[in-house]
Structure formats: structure tokens, C-alpha cells
Amino acid sequence: KGGAYLAQYEHSIIIAQENGLFFFAQLSEFGLDANKIKHVPSNIFSQIKYFDFYGPGQYGMKGLFADKKYIYASVSFMKELNCFNTSILRAELDQSFLNFEIFFVPNDCVNIKNDYGEYNASDSGGRIAEFNDNKILFSTGTFRYRDLAQDLSSELGKILVINKNTAKAEIVSMGHRNVMGLSYKDEAKEIWSTEHGPNGGDEINLNQYGLSKDIKNFGWPISSYGEHYAHPGGEHLYKIAPLNKSHEKYGFVEPLKYFVPSLAPSQLIKIDNKIYQGMLGWDLSRDGVKSILVFTLDDKLNVIAEEKIFLGSRVRDIKFHDTLGKMLIFLEEDGIIALLKDISL
């Protein structure tokens, strides 16, 4: 139980728990004998040396990706004493031992005690997705230091593209609070993401990268359809983060869809003209929580239909396996990995 992330490697599935444990499962055996899921030791404990990473709370593993040679794991990283960001560790794929090295660390971090006056390690981002030309996409959060999302000198509150060979990063988009889902459709040159808003204002966003490679700005914290958690009673926050109820009016990209109240979206994937989006929300009075939402798009990428696959547990991660033609889902309250066989809704 607890958070975990999935990655595909040949005919195996890699499972990374939020506390730094890694497992391999052969897809030929998957769903037949859970005892054949194999724990793979690693050196991650020598790379992450603060206690809170390994217990329940705001810190821990934040994302997972694998290619033909390496496994990439994003983690809550203490860059300096009491100063954190979300960074990437990388290890060669080896089912006997994972020897992680530090691959990418953003250029700044947020101190628990900072001059902005707020800190929250859950606002961390951490999703990793395949990109083009031997590169990956990576989302970073602001740890509640909201101004960083609009600061081009900072790599926090951004979606970055990172070269696998050099670890050099470039900003693809900015104005992000906490991107929890990230995928790229190479044939359409589309970057899809989901984002946790504050109190309300969760978003599905689309960066049509094929139309323009300019840095897109998604508006946080100048624009949002949510409110500050301290509102009412936190009126002072609106002086530094106004949360205007329009993106386009202020020169930002409007979300494809937003949710008020929040449903806490997680990973999303696009298959043909449908978006499959996991949900983490707890409150069962809110339609859509503990489900996968399925959005049908028209040829102009507008949402024209919405359906729900209710699963009764928080959906932390989803992964589509091309060979199987099935979707793998991690349900974190139950500690279950499920197969969704029919994606023809």
C-alpha cells in the first residue's frame, strides 16, 4: 500500500514504491502468480540520506521511467541542508542490483524556512515521460514558493526537456504548480499534462509543441480557477498570487479542462481520440474520484464526451502496454496493480 509508480521494460514491469523499493514483474506471469514479483535491491539509500524520504508524508519517490538501457527515478532531493527540489536518479537496468547515480538536479531548491514564508514538499511535480531525439520530459514543482513558476531563471514550476546523454535541461513550459501527469504523443507533437490546483482548479493542459516550440506559460500563480487554501482569511495571499479567473486574458494558455472542486488528477495517457486520466481524490461525494476518467476529443481537441471507470481506490499511475493492448493501473489504497482489458469505451 501507499504510492507507487510503473514503468515498462521489454516484457517486464518495473514497480517503484514511494519509499525507494523496486520490483520487477514478468508480464508473461503477471496476474497469474504475485509471488513471482521480484524485489531488486539498490543503492538508493546511499543517495538519499534524510529520514523523511522513507516514511509516510510529503517526501519520497515522485515518478518513474525506463528506456532500453536505464531506469530513471525522480525523488524528493535535499540539495542543501533543509533545501529541497525534485531531482532524477538514474541506474542501468539490472534485475540483480540497481546502482543509482545522480542524473539531474534543478538549479535551485526551496528551503523549509524561506523568505516567501511558505513550504510544502507535496507541490513537487516529478513526472517523467519519453520525448523525441533521445530526450525526456520532466515536471518540477515549486514547493509552495509560488513566484518560482514565473521565474525563467528557475527550473522549478516548469516542464523541462532533458538530454539523456548530457543531462542538459531546457524549459518547455512554465507557470506550473504541481504537474502529476505527463505524456507525449510524438506523431502529433502534443505534450499532455495534468496539474493539481490549490483549493479547486485542477487542470488538464495541452502544449501543442508541433505548432510552436516557444515556451508556453500556463499561468500559475497569476491565473487559476481555484482559491488559496487559507481563503477566506488569507486575503494577503492574493496580493502575491492573485489567481485570476482567466488565463487567456493575461496572456496564458487556457486549460483544456479544469475541475472545481478538485479531483486530484494523476497520470494521463492519450490513445487515439481519448484521454485516460487517473484520479487521486478522497471525497466520494465528488463525482469522478477514485476512478479513471475517459474524455473523448473531436478533431480540434475539444472534449465532446466524458465517461467514468469507477475503481474504488486512488489511481496513482497508469501505463498502457502496446503489445498486450491493455492498461496497467496502480491502486494505492489497496496496494493492487490491475489490468484494464477493454479500452474501447
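(the above was protein one; protein two follows)
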Amino acid sequence: VALIETHTGMAQPSAGSGFIYKKGPLNAYVLTNEHVLEGEKIIVTNSKGQETEGKVLGRDSYLDLAVIEINTSSAPKALKFGDSTKTKVGDSVFAIGSPVGRRYQGSVSSGILSGKDRIVPIKIDDKDEWVMKALQFDASINPGNSGGPLFNSKGEVIGICTMKLIEEGIEGMSFALPIEDAEKYLDLLEQGKEIERPELGISMTNISNTLQLINNDITIPDDIMYGAVVLDVKEESSASKHLQKGDIITQIDDQEIRDTTYVKYVLFQHNKEDKITIHYLRDGKKKSTKVTLQ
């Protein structure tokens, strides 16, 4: 498990965590959160205190993942991946990282797995929002733990510590990206390739966005409390023969759609040419259709 510090000029470095997951003859690979890498220069300090400059190979803001390359001589050992799908609520877990930075590098906290498949809203930037399906746990993490591993009792990595809820009256609610969700994209990130995601070909808004609905002359029935409202459908898009302005998407496959972020989340779990089943309301009537993604 490594400390990751990012430097920009003479500014105080920001810090996070990461871990070595693969070693080759010349280079080793470190996995961390994308939001940890806010600076221009990346310094990776391993568990033995050895510092080395890291090179960012690939990053993705939606998954909040990044892969850093370092010299193998600075990689004492690669951690093993476990399988979070085989875990049960109540299982023992522990986290290792660098809460509040270098001074507390290598801190260990323990707890239990509090929940699985939690849908957690996050902000990508000032405009874009996203939801993450996460593991919930109560082991203590703090700023600086981001990007560090969440282990099962066998010492296998089952998740990447990503965030915690910080609100008055809330304690012990931390979240990790399941390791399987990261693992399937590692080859692309190592090669520096962007993760291509399919499109549905619609613009949409939330039911709560009253002003935008009024401006588009769309009326929502009073008894409809959730869903994503279609504002426009692009010509020749995958949805052009299926959806129309005013439709309210309530479910895609087996995932309930609370708002527009859920639509993006479901789409981004698929590849181009995959087929999805969309359940929606039109003129108060329930309908469904199958759409091939582009």
C-alpha cells in the first residue's frame, strides 16, 4: 500500500493512497482514485518509505480510477484481488491508507461490511453528476485514505476506498468501489486508452426540474415521484424509434431509475451493441421497449 502525493509548483502537496496490484520485469502498476491526482508531479512512497516518481497511464473520472506506473524496484509486493461478490454483510474488513497524509502513512482501521450494492450519488465536476454502486463499511477512513484498498479477512483486496458521508449526525458510513468494477477496465487504463461508453441518444432532465419541464411544455402527473424525463431524441439514434419527448423512464433492465444519473450509470455498465430493456410512462400508460445501444 502506497502514499501518493501530488505536487504543483511550490504548493503544499495533496495526498491520497493507492496500492500496487501488478509487477512486471521493469515496471509495476499502482491503482488509486482519479480525484487523488490533482497535481502535475506524482510521488509514490511505498510501505518501506522508498519514494519514486510515478507516471499516470490512464484515468477515468466516472469510475474515479487511475493507474500509475512506477519502477519495479520501488514495488515491494503486489496485492491480490479478492471477490467482493462472495462477501456477506457482517464480514470483517479492514482498510490501509494514509489518513491526512504522510504523517500517518500505513494506518490500519477495521470494521465490518455494512452493506452491498449501495447506490451513492457523487459529483464529477460542477455540472456533471454520477452514481456509484458501492460497498458500504464502517472501518474509519479520512481524507488521505482515498484510493487505498479495502481488504477481506484473507488480506485480499475487495474494494477501493473512495468516500465517506460527512454530515452532522452521521458516523461510520464509508464506501468503496467493488474491485470487480475496477478490474475489468485495468487493461484499457494501463494502455492509456479512454473508456468508450455507449449512447442512448436522448437529452433528459429530472422530474424535480420544474422550470426546464415548463420551458419544454411537459407536464408530469402528480403521482409520479421519480424517473428521468425525455426532453429530446436525436435523429438516427438508438432511441429514435422507441422514445419521444415527454416519456418518463422509470426502469432500465432491473434497475429502478430515480433520476438522470441512474440512466447514465446503467448505460455505462454496458458496451456498444448491447440490448437494454427500457420501461417508461407515456400519457400515463406503462410501456417497455428494447433498444440496441450505439
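Reviewer note on protein two: The mean pLDDT is 93.
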